[in-house]
Amino acid sequence: MAAYYNEIDPYAAQWLRNLIDAGHIAPGVVDERSIEDVRPSDLLGFTQCHFFAGIGVWSLALRRAGWPDDLPVWTGSCPCQPFSAAGAGGGFEDSRHLWPTFAWLIRQRKPPVVLGEQVASKAVEPWVDLVHADLEAMDYAFGAIAFPSAGVGAPHIRDRLFWVGHANDARPQGHPGDGGSAGRGRSSGPAATASLSVRLANPAGIEHERGDGEQGHEDGWPGPGPWLARSGEDSGPGPVNGLWSASDWLLCRDAKWRPVESGTFPLADGVAGRVGRLRAYGNAINAEAATQFIAAYLESI
Description:
CATH class of the largest domain: Alpha Beta
Strand order of the largest sheet: 2-1-3-4-5-7-6
Helix content: 10-25%
Shape: globular
Distance between the termini: 24 Å
Radius of gyration: 21 Å
Largest sheet: 7 strands, mixed
Strand content: 15-25%
Order of helices and strands: EHEEHEHEHEEHEEHH
Structural class: alpha/beta
Number of domains: 2
């Protein structure tokens, strides 16, 4: 059955349609209305419902974790601005605090599993307490964990809190956790916090002094190996880097080199569509982090 994607940003909504057409995420329909305008009856007939859908990363992560498109699940990364350090600090009084609306829809339709994500900070703890209390009142078992993107190999921290609500009275037939092979192919991600500093910006901004015989980057960057060797750490990317083992490196205005996901150089100044890409990426969660969280959930049931 079709998936339902709710996304109010027209640019991201069109990106969702493009991804659906290309087969990258579960087939379905995109609704650009505010979640506040969605009625429970609008969701009848949909197997998966993705709220605050962004560019569909929850759907992608579900697939990567072995969750079939035809098994029920809801996802929703509620707006972080009310509780983010970068926001205005409005908290529960912020009009973008949309958990009550999301919770009402969950209460009306009672999906068997709800997955979500939020910023991880002291300021968000009351929000997590509210989500926890509301879901338990609806007879869901609740679990949440905060971990950095570095824990799945990314060269940056980006702490995020992932949470799950599991309905105590419902378990979908054929669910990946029922003992089948689906969802069992991936283990939970490594807690790669050891030697984390070697995958972040050089904190001292030290420029590498290349010695005789060392091979440098064509733009003058010596590469990660020599810098890591100078810092007394490993001489290159290792298995904990995962998808980031082939990172590109950018020289930033503060004279520090920083690793970025391979292939992001097209976002440089002067390339058509870079602002649009960045805008859409800002609506996305870390796909690998979500994948590993889903895989860990599947291992627990």
